[in-house]
Amino acid sequence: MKNLKKILLLSILACLALPTFAQKASWIWYPGDFDIYMSNVMQNRRTERGSFFPVFWKMDSHYVLVDFHKEFNLSQPEEVKLFVEGTYNVKINGQAISGFPKTIQIPAGKHKLSLKVYNQAHVPAVFVQGKTVISDETWLTTFEDKEWIDASGKTSDKSGTTFVSAGSWNLSDPTKLPSQYKLPTVAQSAVKTEKAGTGYVADFGKETFGFIKVHGLKGKGRLSLYYGESKEEALSTDKCETLDYLDLDIAQKKDSVMPLSKAFRYVNFQPENGVSADSISMLYEYSPVTERGSFKSSDAELNKIYDVAKYTFHLNTREFFIDGIKRDRWVWSGDAYQSYLMNYYSFFDAPTVKRTLLAQRGKDPVTAHINTIMDYSFYWFLGIYDYYKFTGDQKFVQDVYPRMQSLMTYIDGRKNKNGLLEWMPGDWIFIDWADKLSKDGEVSFEQLLYARSLETMALCAKLANDADGADKYDKQAKALKAKIFELYWNQNKSALVHSRIDDKQTDNVTRYANMFGIFFDYFTPEQKLAVKKNVLLNNDVAKITTPYMRFYELEALCAMGEQSYVLKEMKNYWGGMLKLGATSFWEEYNPDKKGTEHLAMYGRPFGKSLCHAWGASPIYLLGKYYLGVEPTAPGYETYTITPNLGGLEWMEGKVPTANGDISVYCSKKEIKVSSATGTGKLKITSKTKPVVKGSEVKEVSKGVYEVTIEKGKQYSIKYNPPSPLKGELKSNTE
Amino acid sequence: MKNLKKILLLSILACLALPTFAQKASWIWYPGDFDIYMSNVMQNRRTERGSFFPVFWKMDSHYVLVDFHKEFNLSQPEEVKLFVEGTYNVKINGQAISGFPKTIQIPAGKHKLSLKVYNQAHVPAVFVQGKTVISDETWLTTFEDKEWIDASGKTSDKSGTTFVSAGSWNLSDPTKLPSQYKLPTVAQSAVKTEKAGTGYVADFGKETFGFIKVHGLKGKGRLSLYYGESKEEALSTDKCETLDYLDLDIAQKKDSVMPLSKAFRYVNFQPENGVSADSISMLYEYSPVTERGSFKSSDAELNKIYDVAKYTFHLNTREFFIDGIKRDRWVWSGDAYQSYLMNYYSFFDAPTVKRTLLAQRGKDPVTAHINTIMDYSFYWFLGIYDYYKFTGDQKFVQDVYPRMQSLMTYIDGRKNKNGLLEWMPGDWIFIDWADKLSKDGEVSFEQLLYARSLETMALCAKLANDADGADKYDKQAKALKAKIFELYWNQNKSALVHSRIDDKQTDNVTRYANMFGIFFDYFTPEQKLAVKKNVLLNNDVAKITTPYMRFYELEALCAMGEQSYVLKEMKNYWGGMLKLGATSFWEEYNPDKKGTEHLAMYGRPFGKSLCHAWGASPIYLLGKYYLGVEPTAPGYETYTITPNLGGLEWMEGKVPTANGDISVYCSKKEIKVSSATGTGKLKITSKTKPVVKGSEVKEVSKGVYEVTIEKGKQYSIKYNPPSPLKGELKSNTE
User: Fold this and answer.
1) Which UniProt keywords apply (chains A, B) (predicted)?
2) Is B353 helix (H, G, I), strand (E, B) or coil?
């Protein structure tokens, strides 16, 4: 009965949403092209103190001439409206129609409708809207149709054309050209203003992003706006990172919106003599994603951390996943990789993941690593496999597989005589922002990511039906993995060393390769324990000061059941930023620093981003390792729930999936679960056999029980957790 | 004295041309990018009966983000003006200047000036104009500068960036953006009008090209313009190839210029009731190249052929060398290859050659043959070597060499099990427009072009300092050449057969591979004679009906001294078109056809182009094989002059080179020569030792004498040619 109601409701909604046409048309283009185009637009919005500040890697371009076609079998003749961005022609069954028709008639029967579009400035795109003839991702496209004719006028009959299915962002308004795409905005006011110089500083209450609007602007002279994530920055007219200078000559009062959106909490508004304005406000610009994931617990500070992390992440979720909102606003692969993972536990917005992956990769030929960074090429591969794991979208893997191959070919071409990767001209070995971190020689961390990427290639090759490729990459991955342990594992140190120089291990042990080795599951159980003790929980090994690598460090500890330790670390580290007044999480946080030292980076007093996506990792850690939800088959067809309170009294939250949410409540007495997708296994550690109504409880190992979770049902389980809970064991360095 | 005057004059001219600045600035961009951009613009101007008709191969795009820089050592501070097409920043010694400065001050001393430009719609371009700081091809550019910084703000010190020298078309007006580039036009009138329908047909007297201008246009309704290379075409409102429909509503009389330039001799002007106009005229659009080459002789018909060929060729010399002015107006590699050769004997316009080569090749990755045609990829290679041979411009070879390599890698990747090329999906095997010409199996013609291209690669590798490449390509070329003779030479037929199918020679002998084998000098002297007899002069071998392949057929005969025979053929073939009233030469001419049959092609009554570049080959044949001028070292450092009257009483003409012209007069008694370049060898066949004042005459073989020609001198030689002259020998089929 319930299900029937739901179906009816869905049907009604479907009818309401599509009052005129049976199917939903959208703007379509050559797949990946709008992603590349729009990422160029977005990334070129960066300025530094009024100077245009573009990226330093190759920006690709869309195909400027694209053919679109689809075959239809119409039971009745149909009038079809055509909307095109570009110069175009239209053919029905290969016969061109004169001019640039806006409406065409397609007779009943089987017909092929083709449009060919040229556009250098913007992405060639079409929107086709008939009763049944509509543009969507089922259309085929190509950038070279190879339709030559012979001397008699006959079209070539031996086609070598590769057609691929069209790309789309589901832009469903035919009157709004794709090039006009913009994120929505909403008007917001400052919460406080304070006199400064000839103007004032406006405080918007928290870190935010948008366009400043100046009301009642008038006069002749210069208006200067200095933006600050901190008040100190806004007041520092000669050192703040972003600003606007407007040279005005306005007789009548008018409102003026700044051309570029900016990140700020404070805006220092300084009109010269002769210029005046009534006030300033802002247009908050945001990505209209849905906040689906949630987390709440008995710990108020942790809840605050989660909320600020989610706000931080939302600010950095824009047309694409970007690094930080103040400075770069670029699509960095290492940063985005973490955003993907956070996204799966918050918005579950698959389109933004796809867009970001496509934008990063750009087009062939590969002339450098992604963002020029070796590690960032590897994160890109990892991001694709995760995307498949969380969404089950095999088609995207198949579509992007050729570009995976060409990037891997580029990387394989850069191996040294030992079959390992080391710095070559043009490579940036990033790893992390950390003092005295050696990038010389063959760095173990890079080889580890390389091996993982090859494993990803093997898996994706299978998904793309490339059996030979799967076999090749699998062999390559296995060989490299074996070599890593042969060359970098140091028995005395019981850890992977940081690097090899001149074919010899260096003495240096860092956290990077070791923590990745844990959640990549590359170590034996004994090695894992040794690494945990000798590296992760060893204060003599250089500390990590970026949330970026803390993400993986804490993940590694969680993967080993150290939720209780990690909870304290989270409260210390992210709680530490909150105690300093943070309203969003930072690019870097070193508790040893004082006052305005926290604002500096890159040798600039306000160089640091105070709202950085990689600062938001608690979203991911709490969803995956506390609520404990994780897919075990693509798209959550199967999954596990392993709640771990980590010392909390209770927690509750939702983890989104493509088909609906998984809800978890967990206290020290009861676990409640419901799910809208797949088949789950709830794993419970309990001193006594848990009790659940209407479902079977299986003991899978001593004191560990499993309950099968079916979709659409509600489960409530009474249990009796051991005390201290697993994960609350004091770690050996405390 | 004469020379001194000339130098003085040149100096004065130089001063006049550059009144303000010591050096000449020009717009610069990433090399090849404007060529690709502008060829997209040009090729997308094609329409067919009002429908947009774009190319069917991949159109590439410029790099959208480009960095430009140059280091200067200034003795004095300098004010420098900046003109930029795109969004940009400016840095002096790496320090950005705020905003988009139009004038900057560079202090004295050594400084690096950088501009970084983003432009999706047009090519990122800069024009820098100071007293000594100017933009030109010495600037360096890149599309990925890889200028990352570390956490301290320090710029990466290990650069892997590839900088290349900027491209330019010598556009020297800073106020005219490169994207506004247009060919010049000049107003011209119709020579005759004749009533037709509700309007009239205007006759412009000869084949021409430009924009129709309608004077005094007024009224409400439709105005239709039907263009015709023939009167029949202009009158055929439903079959003419190009037209304009204008839907008007104009209250006051005004002049209106059509948006697209068209090819025509006749324009059929048809206003609907309610529309009226005073008259039409045209804006003739042309490339401002200089007509440097010339030819005149005792034969008036031949002179007419030469003049009409040169006009035909000029019409098809536009932003790039195109195929024909009516229909495609595209950059076809096989067509352009002939244009390059004609150009060396007429305009000697090196920039148009470079542009066309760059536009054809586009960018990596290679996804198809050039224009999708296998033979056309090969002509592209040949065009580069010829360019070097005629101009001596090694830098261009070096610049384009990486794109030569990637195209050759693509081709090498398509060899079959026998190491030969045959049709694969996506390949168009063109060869020629000819009935029943088999493209099946391994076609000998394609292997021959492949071998010649590999030889070109070996030569260009050497010029680009790639010794390994030179060695590799040389070996590959030699092996392929040997294989061609092993597999295709048929001893019984004394010719190369057309193809192999299923590893066996076919019976078919065609002219293509055999005639190319002659001027490629691939045959032994015995084979040459046999091929001449059994193929070239054998009427049983299928005749060639396009001027395109007649070019090579006649070249092969000239190369064997058959100038007399070829002269008659020229008079028959090109003279045949003139007798039919041609004012420019055609895409195809079959003397067996009658009346309007001559206008039809591709199954369309007016499908044939009546003004096709490949119709202009007499320019090349007369310059190279009659005046007999040919470089023997790159850029005419050395050259030969081997005049051959081919039965004419006398001839005279000029052959242009990069450094000035070579003038030749030749009668049956006297040869007069002067040259502005290099060192020449004049070769004279004479019964007695020729007499020349102030120069030595050497007998190099019996009856063949050689005079060394030094630049700047005038030579007059009395000689005594044998009768009949070499080349006047009756060929064995006459």
Assistant:
1) Signal
2) helix
CB contact under 8 A, B61 and A62: yes
Query: A228 and A351 share a domain?
Result: no
Say yes or no: A607 and A459 in one domain. Answer: yes
Q: Which helix (H) or strand (E) holds B631?
A: strand B629-631
Between chain A and chain B, how many beta carbons pairs sit less than 8 Å apart?
A: 189
Task: Tell me what the pLDDT averaged over chain B comes to.
Answer: 94
Q: Are residues A210 and A108 in the same domain?
A: no
Interface of B with A in 313-332 (CB under 8 A): none
Question: Is A8 a member of any domain?
Answer: no
In a domain, B730, yes or no: no
- Distance between A332 CA and the closest CA of chain B, angstroms: 13
| A502-561 residues touching B, CB cutoff 8 A | none
Residues of chain A with pLDDT below 70 are 1-23, 156-158, 724-734
Q: How far apart are CA B663 and CA B653, in angstroms?
A: 6
Query: What's the pLDDT at B21?
Result: 44
Note whether B451 and B312 are same-domain residues: yes
| Domain count along chain A | 4
Chain B CB contacts of A603 under 8 Å are: 152-154
User: Is A383 found in the same domain as A472?
Assistant: yes
Residue A440's pLDDT is what? 94
Of the residues B98, B118, B120, the best mutation for testing chain A's interface (the one with the most A CB atoms within 10 Å of its CB) is B120
Q: Which residues of chain B does A435 touch, with a Cβ-Cβ cutoff of 8 Å?
A: 151
**B252/B378 same-domain check:** no
Last residue of a domain, one of A128, A160, A180: A180
**pLDDT tens-place string over residues A531-567:** 999 999 999 999 998 999 999 999 999 999 999 999 9
- Domain, as residue range, for A231: 185-285
pLDDT computed for residue A19 by the predictor? 40
| Interface contact flag, A144 B368, Cβ < 8 Å | yes
Q: Is pLDDT above 80 for B18?
A: no
How many residues does the structure list for chain A? Answer: 734
Query: A581 CB contacts (<8 Å, ≥6 apart)?
Result: none
Please tell me which residue of chain A has the smallest CA distance to B49: A98
Model ipTM value:
0.93
- pLDDT given for residue A157 in this prediction: 64
* CATH code (residue B336): 1.50.10.10
Q: What is the CATH number of the domain that holds A647?
A: 2.60.420.10
Please tell me the predicted confidence (pLDDT) of residue B17.
Answer: 41
SS (H, E, C) B132-149: CCECCCCCEEECCCCCCE
Chain A contacts in chain B segment 105-134 (CB below 8 A): 116, 118, 120-122
End-of-domain residue from the set B262, B285, B308 = B285
Instruction: Provide the b/e sequence for A119-151 (b: ≥16 CB within 10 Å).
Output: bbebbbbbbbbbeebbbbeebbbbbbbbbeebb
Q: Chain B contact for A48, CB < 8 A?
A: yes
Please report, for the domain that includes residue B129, its CATH number. 2.60.120.260
For position A435, what pLDDT does the model report?
A: 86
Structural domain contains residue A724: no
**Do B146 and B189 sit in the same domain of this protein?**
no
Residue A408 lies in a domain: yes
Question: What is the spatial distance between Cα A220 and Cα A205, in angstroms, rounded to a whole number?
Answer: 31
Q: Over range B631-649, report the average pLDDT.
A: 98
**pLDDT value at position B15?**
40
Instruction: Tell me what pLDDT residue A180 has.
Output: 97
What is the percent of chain B with per-residue pLDDT over 90, rounded to a whole number? Answer: 91
